[in-house]
Amino acid sequence: MTTSMSSDRPLSPATDESALKRAFSCFPSGVVAVCRSTDDGTPIGMSASAFTTVSLEPPLVSVCVRNGSATWPSLAGSGTLGVSVFAAHQGEACRRLAGPTEDRFTGVHPIFDESGAVFIPGATAHLACTVFAEVPAGDHVVVLLQIESLRCDPAVEPLVFHASSFRALETRRAND
């Protein structure tokens, strides 16, 4: 038995921001941390749920950053960025990296890479990336990141963000 929304319900205009946010929240996404080290060795970073794979050749991923982000200009400078794909148990670290700047690494013992990338330990994947391109896109900028090196463990369950909540993945039988 399948359930679906009523097709006789009228569509909301895309200018209705709350309806648009609700619609965007229907799409589950992974959540990442984007971090690097400053010249004095201090970690800076943020979490992002608008992340996706883009290309194998060249190896690209993308992250969307809100215009006016106070953190992105510090991250976008020269150097390598660490992208950590949060694991299922890392909801608190993800929330912290989305919170006040001074508290983002409280309780987190980041991994510092010699490239300047900073990673969150225990993540399902670590990608060392450089900025490939930035594309203005409405109230955000789409940042294309070129992967320079990586490590991953697909056996580690990822953190999934859906309908403004963290969710768990479920393995389904082939006939579901």
Automatic annotation (TrEMBL):
Gene3D superfamilies: Electron Transport, Fmn-binding Protein, Chain A. InterPro entries: Flavin_Rdtase-like_dom, NADH-dep_flavin_reductase, Split_barrel_FMN-bd. The keyword Glycosyltransferase does not apply. The keyword Oxidoreductase applies. It comes from the Bacteria. Residues 24-168 form the Flavin reductase like domain. Its EC number is 1.-.-.-. Pfam families: Flavin_Reduct. GO terms for molecular function: oxidoreductase activity. Keywords: Oxidoreductase. Belongs to the non-flavoprotein flavin reductase family. This is Flavin reductase family protein. It comes from Gordonia hydrophobica. The lineage of its organism: Bacteria, Bacillati, Actinomycetota, Actinomycetes, Mycobacteriales.
